[in-house]
Amino acid sequence: FFVSLFFYYKTSGDFYILLLLSTVWDFYIGRAIYRGKTHNRKKWLIALSVFLNLGVLFYYKYAYFVVDTINYLAGTQLKVVDYFALLANDISGGNFTVNKIILPVGISFYTFQTISYSVDIYRGKIKPLDRLIDFGFYVTFFPQLVAGPIVRANEFVPQMALKYQLNKQEFGQALVLILQGLLKKMFIGDYIAVNFVDRVFSNPMTYSGFENIMAIFGYSLQVYVDFSGYTDIAIGLALLLGYRLPANFNSPYKAQNVGEFWKRWHISLSTWLKDYLYIPLGGNKHGEFRTNINLMATMLLGGLWHGSSWQFVIWGGLNGIGLVFYKYWKRISPWAKSSHWGAKLYGIALTFLFISFTRIWFRSETMHNANAMLYQISHSLDFSLIPTMIVAYKGVFSIMLLGFIAHWFPSKAKSSYQNWFINSPIWAKLAIVVIAVFAIYQVRTSELQPFIYFQF
Length: 456
Known about the structure:
Blueprint: H1 2-12, H2 16-35, H3 39-74, H4 83-92, H5 107-122, H6 132-140, H7 142-145, H8 153-160, H9 168-202, H10 209-240, H11 258-264, H12 267-278, H13 288-306, H14 310-332, H15 341-363, H16 367-379, H17 386-392, H18 394-408, H19 411-423, H20 426-443
Helix pairs in contact: 2-3, 2-5, 2-6, 3-5, 9-10, 9-18, 9-19, 9-20, 10-15, 10-16, 12-13, 13-14, 14-15
């Protein structure tokens, strides 16, 4: 528990105090919910837990969004002030910054984790933990603390009472995941981001339509290898420590429709939104129109979870529209029900194109940049220049091609090389680790790039 706190202190400084406060109040609220003698009392307590957690999340993550919106609509000149920092300075005589609000690393992840704990106690799915340090260990478990996967108490807590075990198979699997995650993030993700994707998205008007299109595809690859790379490392580290975390990705770009994509992408978040937002809103139990409204609301709020800007709202809305559209499309489309390989490829390609298109807003820092990218694609797409650009960006495009081939590689083939590594002698594992680290070192960027989902 204290090692995890120190880990969080090294990533977020004094925001470890906020993590501790969240841990303490949810521990005692959870116990109070379990001991509540009336249903009404339990409802008030769960409302308190949700209010505290979402209140803190809203304050740190959406204060600028709300103030900017009010200023735009009302023509006011309101300024953001960190009143928590101001209060801390008054109490402790500290010197916290008060003229801007800094987003604590991982707050979106551990907030959803503690909310699920209280809600599951309220629903009678789990019993509260007896010791604060046990609950603190669950909340702060360092491999997945700052960027997921979002782990639920009923998946993690029972493992705390088990005797430590790690067999040869699991040791090999953990090494595979850690190496795979590092290679994904640093060999592919960082390289294409620094050398191409970031440059185009920061100033799309200075690049051609073709370069903008390739940057969109590049970002789809980057966000996958970076985020899934972190998840691989987190799951691998947890496994070495004797804990089994749930999978967070399942080859999402093999999805044949938008609905399937969201069952394969950021699984811990999409299932959390389904269980704690979509179903409580009514799910699909109140007619087709209400189901569509619930679906759109879930995706819009899922978009806002990622960040406080209208670009994320648009991204969530587009994905919601995609899900609703596919519901009706599959009823009339002969391709949707076909098992022919051509229909499958068509579905995979169309889904990938749609998901990549929505990421224009997901990645763009401003609405102006998103509009500029759309303009360049529609007005500056000179096909005669494409061969020249392919040669000019041969290094970046080669790495992108390698990344997509690796992703779309058959699952059985991937399992074969993983099993070979797992069953290889220890000297062979050591040699492969050394080679992999050497390769990563050779392609590292000049400055260490943070994991992409730290911003959320």
